[in-house]
Amino acid sequence: MGSCEDVEYGDIYSVANPAAAPARMLDFSLHQPHLQFPPSYGFHSLPAAGYLPSPPQSLALGSTPSPASTTTTELESPENLSADDAVLAYINQFLLEDDDEEESFPSPGAAAPAAAPERDSALLAVAKPFVDIIADAATYQESPWVERPNASAGTGGGFPSMFMSSCQLVPSEPVKEEGRCAVHRGRKKNRHDDDGGLELEDERRSKQSALCEEEIIREMFDNVLLCNCPDCELQSPLPDESEITKAYVKGSGNRRGRKKGKTKAAAAVEESVDLTTLLIHCAQAAAIDDHRSSGELLKQIRRHSSAHGDAGQRLAHYVANGLEARLAGVGSTVHRSLVAHRTSIADMLKLLRLYGTACPFLRLSRFFSNQAILQASKGATRLHIIDYGIDHGFQWPVFLQRVAKLEGPHPRIRITAIDLPQPGFRPAERIEATGRRLHDYARMYNIPFEYHAIAAKWDTIRIEDLRIDKDELLIVNCLFRMRHMMDETVTDQSPRMTVLNTIRKLNPHLFIHAVVNGTYNAPFFVTRFKEALFYFSSLFDMLETTASKLEEQEHRMLIERDFFAREALNVIACEGTERVERPETYKQWQVRNLRAGFRQQPLNQETVKKARYKVTRSYNKDFFVDEDNKWMLQGWKGRVIVAMSTWKPS
Prior knowledge:
Radius of gyration: 28 Å
Largest sheet: 10 strands, mixed
Number of helices: 18
Shape: globular
């Protein structure tokens, strides 16, 4: 598809459609003392001055998580402090007392006590067992904002531990100087420090730098994901109907003309080389394993395509890569290597900002979903949202922000996050980090919040795993991710229908479904290739038109290379269960949903009008918002790219 949140979907695939495995779920409830989270001091609050709890009386060593991963956010209270926080403060008290002893040393001319080195060594010896305990518990104390710098490629990265060594336990507040993040030095170095002391000082500075990076990443999250504009078209009252109608004329931008500014010679060269025809002929040769003809055609395509050319040349370059991988029989291997490449959270936010500015698909899809949830949950005191394919959870910070603005008491919100397990030793790593970020936002907005993470194949999840409470208003949300599931052409029992049947049995108050309107799921290669070529040509043309500024080109190329090209390669070079890109049209999904026992709900006309008005005011004239058979459609130059609708059990 063309969404930047959705683009990270591939990171969960080591092998497409892996064998069924039991759900991996971890429980880190704040109500269990040995699994409590520390208070979030990094961004919203700092511990009160003089806060030094007494050392813990006992510690649960070697404790293991329970089979369910649930966290709960309530108002901050001393009872919520974990045993590890008490250990941290206890060691911190030792270090501060040591600082006081250093300051009480005589003047430089006087002789220092001879026992200082022994005292330092004794202090480190006392602190080491506690540091080891904290390191063992670091899994549940990671920062959700910054990735681990030394994460192995096999696990796909992660987030750094909040506490790494004893030197990092000294509180030191970072400050900003001239727009850059600077940190106070922690414990002072005295003349008696040896090489070990220098290492401790370096590690302390590294920790403080990490805190600054967390602050920067958190600020990026707020700027990209939250709506802080008082004049936002999506949250402001609609203008007069006449103004909306005057501003938006359906199909007004569906004119495909040649780009201005080209010379006659350049136009002649472009007309003489039809890359689309060359690509289709090459695909036809590849379909019958004609390596000689396909090789010659690939040479011609390579001469006239480039990753740095115009939209058609860039698309031809990446499609040629897919054809080459198919001819060499290494499509699955290449795709897995591309999936193994992880995009950092900071880069993801930069790409998401560009994509949200250039294209309305993702922003309006989230708006449609959030608006439907808010309308359905009016007056509810307890809200349970099951999100199939939560990924990084970029949809939910702005949802919590909107809930905080509602009048009256805030409902208690529980999110059950479902996603496929990541390869490596920590299959639920990403969705657990997503939960910690959402807990921070819930604390900031003072909203009672609970988070339950499930990392498993969707069709293996049972109703009992979802912990349904009859007193809660249940909403099921799935945006664009169901296209990655196998269908009837691969297996007799379609996982797609299995998941839809499970959702139906949950009897939700509302099921929100957004789909990629793609026709490139045919079992026959040449047919699938042609449809994929036309679909991705629209996406490349869209970014060429809307993100052509010099400062945007680098990020645009990253979106095309790391996301669009990866999807195209999977469609072209992979077959069978290795092919995970399997979209269907919204009309096909409508038949599936009806067959699963759902009935479609009418569109909220105010939501559609706001979406249309937003596109008119903020985006290129070639984008459109339309309605068809109770689906809200979004597209580019007449081609429907995504569609959204709401459903209830029959």
